[in-house]
Design brief:
heterodimer, A: 332 residues, mainly alpha, ABC transporter involved in vitamin B12 uptake, BtuC, globular, B: 343 residues, alpha/beta, Rossmann fold, 2 domains, six-stranded parallel β-sheet, 15 strands, elongated
């Protein structure tokens, strides 16, 4: 178990530190509208990182999310371009399809008992391959302006995509913290067998989060497509590692049991601000990647060895003292 | 003693003040302009060569009293999302011009339009986007049909007019590669009706996947395909390496597009006989001149309804339809001439 409160505070500290350093490096960094423009480019990443966190808390992983994004984007594009379906209806159908793709992952994991890493590694290749097979690299563009406004437009200066990302994070954060669902997730991640015997509906919970992950990948596909103005089979082709990195930097433990939406969201913001700030300070991306790597490895080391929950540890040592007091056997 | 020190100090002070007051002799220098070059990715010799050309042009312009602050920023590997992020962040800095080589025909259109709307001059080089209104000019390295003809003629010469051809490309959405593939197919149909494309594989412009896809071609499609045409600078050396490892040097004809340093080794070993490309140094050089001409509104002339732009030592270039400027013809590197080139 990790001390999540502490990790969230540390991440907040890192974010503030990043802002201070970046505003020294580049005068343009604190230009709010420019910053919002840059941050909105991470909305899809942020949206996918939310369910990824929930899945990692249960000790699973979903590597197929970015491929699902590409596939559902292509499906939306073809429904619109080939069958003349209204773009908004096509978007809803694409999100539903993405949910089905998530359900397929869930079936592989819960019914066929394939480890999540392998199951979603398979669908990672399958969904991307399917997208490529349908589209053959042509891409679909020419969407109506009303649809493109979703990716471009803003409400009181805040881009729609950021608002959607915030809304999803808040709703799921509340759902996970205010209902038993959140405790089910960490119970599964901490000790799955124990959770089963405690009456946690393990299978149903798992199906729910993988389907949710699919649905949100579909939503991210809609936002992505309207932002770049094209449905592409290679959308987010290198994106899944960033999604996992965000969740892990946010304190989610790949061994299961810990992780929060707030931590992950802070992590996405940290990574996006470093990226934007260093470009504005004319630092090459190869250097940026090293900096992100250092932060990632450093924070995980910290979470593992320093950020461990003290409450748990002390209780554990106390139990050991109480139940197994050192007994002097008299042997030499 | 003390007095002389004081005197020297006063003189020095006066001299400094005088220099500041009268200004330096090169006061006629224009205000510097800021130009960002955003390649598809930074880690390839090809784009380093483009950067060299742009820096050379920036230096020349500086010597002419037209200083340019030049920055080279881009994704470390071919990544559309990261290229969009890079350009968005650069827009916040309000440079005078952005030179781009696009990873995607469509996805970069909105961000380039944003740059234009912010008053930044946008010049493409190497790889364009589908919408010409998203940028001011595009410097095209070589005519697509000319390049396709050069490659296919080489295959016909070495393998025969009925050869089965395997194409190793970059990303399935890469604009240049798709245009070349289409042009190659069209030229085959027209000049060598029996020649055919056996397979097209995509190596994503990354060494590992390109190597694997080259192995796929060798294992699954040889001897149906006796020629590999690798049309990205990353994939070509990987295809040559795969053929070398399979011990099929001389049996499978490998050609394609890359910088000469990338395939020197394979040409020396006899696995590769010809490498086709244009001069990427000149490409970067011309793109920088076009950006300067646009920002400073100079060396753009209209003669008899045709627009010409100045390209420094390369001379003037006619602007074609859709504001495309064509750099030149493809160049074939052979074992005889390759040692003269170092990029």
């Amino acid at each position: 178990m990790r001390n999540i409160r502490k990790i969230e505070l540390i991440l907040l500290g890192i974010l503030i530190l990043v802002f201070v350093i970046m505003s020294f490096l580049s005068k343009q960094f604190l230009n709010v509208s420019a910053l919002l423009q840059v941050l909105q480019l991470s909305a899809e990443l942020g949206i996918m990182a939310v369910p990824m966190t929930l899945i990692i808390v249960t000790g699973g992983i979903d590597l197929s999310l970015a491929s699902n994004l590409a596939l559902s984007g292509i499906i939306m594009g073809y429904l619109w371009a080939l069958f003349g379906i209204n773009i908004w209806i096509a978007a809803v159908l694409a999100i539903a399809f993405a949910g089905l793709a998530g359900l397929f992952n869930a079936v592989l994991i819960t019914r066929l008992d394939i480890p999540p890493l392998l199951a979603t590694l398979g669908t990672w290749a399958a969904y991307r391959g399917l997208a490529l097979g349908i589209d053959k690299g042509k891409g679909i563009s020419g969407f109506p302006q009303s649809f493109l406004n979703l990716g471009k437009g803003s409400l009181m200066g805040i881009p729609y995509s950021l608002l959607i990302w915030a809304a999803i994070s808040i709703v799921i954060y509340l759902f996970v913290t205010k209902t038993a669902f959140g405790r089910y997730l960490s119970a599964i991640g901490y000790n799955e067998t124990g959770a089963i015997y405690s009456g946690v509906p393990v299978r149903r919970v798992k199906v729910a989060i993988y389907v949710l992950a699919g649905l949100l990948a579909g939503l991210a596909a809609v936002i992505y497509t309207s932002r770049v103005g094209a449905a592409k089979s290679n959308a987010y082709s290198n994106g899944i590692l960033s999604v996992v990195a965000a969740a892990v930097l946010g304190g989610a433990d790949v061994k299961g049991g810990s992780g929060t939406i707030l931590g992950t969201t802070l992590a996405v913001l940290i990574m996006a601000s470093i990226n934007a700030g260093l470009i504005m300070a004319n630092v090459q991306q190869t250097v940026q990647e090293m900096i992100i790597a250092v932060i990632l490895v450093g924070s995980i080391t910290f979470y593992e060895y320093v950020g461990r929950s003290k409450v748990n540890r002390s209780r554990f040592t106390k139990q050991v003292k109480d139940k197994n007091p050192p007994v002097y056997t008299g042997k030499k | 003693m003390k007095r002389s020190v004081f005197l020297v100090m006063t003189l020095f002070l006066l001299l400094t003040v005088g220099m500041l007051a009268f200004g330096n002799p090169t006061a006629s220098v224009a205000k510097p302009i800021t130009v960002y070059m955003v390649p598809k990715f930074t880690g390839a010799p090809y784009f380093v060569a483009c950067k060299q050309g742009a820096m050379q042009a920036a230096k020349e312009l500086g010597e002419l009293g037209l200083p340019v602050k030049f920055y080279f920023m881009g994704p470390s590997t071919a990544n559309t999302e990261q290229e969009i992020k890079t350009i968005t962040s650069i827009i916040a800095l309000h440079p005078d011009a952005i030179l781009y080589s696009s990873n995607d025909v469509q996805a970069l259109i909105p961000v380039l339009k944003e740059a234009k709307a912010a008053g930044i001059k946008v010049v493409g080089f190497d790889a364009d986007v589908a919408d010409p209104s998203a940028r001011d000019f595009f410097v095209n390295q070589v005519d697509f049909n000319e390049l396709a003809k050069t490659l296919i003629d080489l295959v016909a010469k070495h393998v025969g007019p009925d050869a089965g051809v395997a194409i190793l490309s970059a990303d399935p959405n890469a604009a240049n590669q798709n245009a070349w593939i289409a042009a190659m197919k069209a030229y085959m149909a027209q000049s060598y009706p029996k020649m055919h494309v056996v397979t097209i594989q995509y190596g994503e412009d990354l060494p590992g996947p390109s190597f694997q896809k080259a192995q796929t071609i060798i294992n699954a499609y040889y001897p149906k395909a006796k020629a590999i045409v690798a049309i990205t600078s990353v994939a070509f050396p990987m295809a040559a390496q795969a053929v070398l490892q399979a011990g099929l040097g001389g049996k499978i004809y490998v050609t394609g597009l890359t910088t000469p340093n990338n395939v020197k080794k394979y040409i020396k070993l006899g696995v590769v006989k010809e490498d086709v490309l244009w001069n990427p140094v000149d490409l970067g050089y011309l793109a920088m001149y076009v950006a300067n001409d646009l920002v400073r509104n100079m060396m753009i002339k209209e003669i008899n309804g045709a627009v010409y732009v100045g390209g420094g030592k390369l001379g003037f270039y006619k602007v074609g339809p859709n504001n495309v400027i064509l750099l030149g013809k493809p160049f074939v590197f052979t074992p005889q001439n390759i040692d003269q080139f170092n990029f």
